[in-house]
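Give me the 3D structure for Heme A synthase.
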Amino acid sequence: MSTKRSIFEDVGRENGRAAPAPVGAIAAKSRGARRGIRIWLWVLFAMVVVMIAVGGLTRLTDSGLSITEWKPVTGVLPPLSVADWQTAFDKYREIPEYQLQNKGMSLSQFQFIYWWEWGHRQLGRVIGLVWAIGFAGFALARRIPAGWTGRLLLLGGLGGLQGAIGWWMVSSGLEGERLDVASYRLATHLGLAFVILGLIAWYALSLSRPEAGLMQARRWREHRLRQLGIGLAALTFVQILLGALVAGIDAGRNYVDWPLMGGGFWPPFPFEMTPLWRNFFENDALVQFMHRMSGYLLLIAGVGIWWRARRSANAATRGAFAAMLAMMLLQMVIGIATVLHGAPWHIAILHQLGAVVLWVLVLRAVHRASYPLAQSVRGTAGAVR
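Predicted structure for Heme A synthase (385 residues):
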């Protein structure tokens, strides 16, 4: 005869046995993988930022052409003897930079610039190794969430492509009469670095929330604000590329007045090179003018989109766009200071790192508009990540 069960009896047990684990336990396991991958991605992000800073210093110290060969494997070893150093130095003395600019350089001076470029290349190898170890570890442990394997592989592929583009850039300065690398190749190299940074940041932001939470957040997506944010991100990327062109020809060290250029709004001799297209890449007056005008346009667009974002019902989204605008204003101030001081290395690097922060904040604002954080009546329920 069956006994009566109280309506208050623990319904989590049946026939004296514990009920199966709730679905939430499986989700918790998945969250662990997302957390670990997110940490790994932020480590990669920090390393790429350091790589950009070291690359900038390598350029500012005119060290980028000191290693005249690309050896992806054996290049990990620097010269280990006096004879090896002399061989490397002899190869450097054959390129235009030495013959036209650094003729008479001593071996010790060569070693200084060599170590900068060697360190830059080794850091790239270490980043690739950290990616490979991390990806292999998560893949072998089967801890990569569904749909994320291709995205993480993409990062590794872009990293490998970046190494090849880096050599393509360096090779442009090893022959002919060019003293530096081609500015458009430098812009391509830096642009891809920012693409990689942007993907890492976007992936990390997405992995900071459960997949189900992201799917639910799409229902509250602010489509118009998202579209405006994507347009702002594109304009920010163009400004970064123009900044790379400025750096590639040291245009920031000329026309050190502001808001005018050479005493006028329109700089002197902006189209003196032939053919005409060369001026857009190699004429310091025109390149710096384009960078300034693009910066003004970016600021106007940023203010307008921030004003539009003020109408968002989501506090986290409003805060993301406000942070973006604050950084944009700060970056413009740093840019003006860079020009007025003739682009000394410490201000120039600060300006470059400011571009990194602005780029991430713009993408973060777009992410907030695309996947708004859950918000209670009193405000945002979740912590702003």
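The two ends are 58 Å apart (CA to CA). Let me know if you want a second pass.
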